[in-house]
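Hi Y.,

Following your request, here is the sequence exactly as I used it, all 458 residues.
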Amino acid sequence: MGAVLGLCSAAQLACCCGSAACSLCCSACPSCKNSTSSRIMYAIMLLLGTVVACIMLSPGLEDTLQKVPFCDTAGGGEASGSPLVLTKQLDCSEVVGYLAVYRLCFAMTLFFFTMALLMIGVKSSKDPRANIQNGFWGLKFLILIGAIIGAFFIPHGEFGIVWRYFGLFGGFLFILIQLVLIIDFAHSWAEAWVDKYEETESRGWYCALLSATFLNYALSITAVVLFFVYYTVTDGCTLHKFFISFNLILCALVSILSILPKVQESQPRSGLLQASVITLYTLYLTWSAMTNQPDQACKPNWSTVISGVNESPNNDQKPQFDGESIVSLVIWFLCVLYSSMRTASNTQTSKLTMSDRVLLRDDQGTTSDPETGEGHHVWDNEEEGVAYSWSFFHVMFGLATLYVMMTLTNWLTPNSDLTTLSNNMSAVWVKIVSSWICLLLYTWTLVAPLMLTNRDFS
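Below is the corresponding structure, written out as tokens. Let me know if you'd prefer a different format.
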């Protein structure tokens, strides 16, 4: 009975997440577009890879693996002494640490970029390659697993150093995409609420606008105060003082710029709500950068802060995932989902992905399965044209894989020790420069209509 139930559950999952043809055999899932279900599956694939990468960096994992019989505690990989056992013990240290994450992400990046090449030029689901994009999930997972296993057979050599530079380049490109998505979210949120207020003239929407803006600025001011209290000292931490003060000044300037009469004239919906979101995100990046500062005197010992008991620094502290790493990963994955699931209203991201012509085509004309007249299937909504650029979608996921690789390792250099995962100056500058780029991009969205008067920014 258990096997039958397991088979049924697997069949339902396949129907929910498989191709449109497969979805016709079951009605266990709510109505879902084929383009949406495919993007959800690729997002799950990326999430599972992230979880495995986190496990590879878990403190104490290598010690735990050494207790497994087939692991070689000496790292020599010698064959078993028993004449009846022909197995070879494995060096389990190979699946632990940042090099293991590099190999995992190498395989995932290769998978996504291969998919991107295969999907070049696909215009609709009538293309034979649509079956590869929207189906064969079991086979694609097996191929990905095989690629990951194969990546661990790559000789050490210069692999870590070379792949690190690929990761830096790809991770930075994804950061740019992420910043554009944050700015797009800020503008979309404000425009949606302003439209609601103008349509209904309800004081509720007006209060919601004011409350959200006030809350964002209140959190920002609180963050600045806490930064000065916990991340600076009177006679030191000059770099932190510069980061906090300089970014605070920049945030104040963009907030003022957002409500200038000239800006309001060209963009009536521009206001402090967008600026408050950008300010809060900029201060998050500032905090994230300061937590990567190698100087322990410029960072709080949270166990001491919470317990109130002074503890001496522990130089032998094992590597661990701190709160900053978790928050960064959550924001990363939310941005991936946001970029994957946005549809016709997302004009800025659609232009970024070079699919504005397609994304501006809405799917409201069809609300259910055209073959059955019911709304309980994964149905094909891309017969006339794809709902997003399949090729660029995989390119973005490949870049996202490189970004999470660098985020998990805190942009770690290959010859560094695992105990420096949260203490890396390269991570400090990557995040600080990202905050400046974010402010620069937001400023450009405000002044571009004033400088390029011959273009329509509506």
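The chain has a mean pLDDT of 74.

Thanks again,
Q.
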